[in-house]
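Sample intake sheet
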Amino acid sequence: MRFLICLALLAISSSSALAASCSERIAFVQRVIDGDVKTGFADKKVHDAMSKDLADAGQACRGGDDAKAQALISSTQRRHGYPVR
């Protein structure tokens, strides 16, 4: 039963993160990778590649293409081993 409750809570928290605007999500992911490179969890090359991808997502977001921006954010997270929320 506890397992099902945990799964339900995870699903709720995941869906709310996906509902965030593309600009909010880009800022969140950028903060995470900035922190990871500072603590040594992520390599500088990974940080730079992800930052470039997030900049591309930012262009799509500013252009009003939320779906494309969200897809770019998710794909860069998956490609570099970050969980997609």
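Comment: DSSP finds four helices and no strands in the chain. The helical segments are 2-18, 22-39, 44-62, 66-79.
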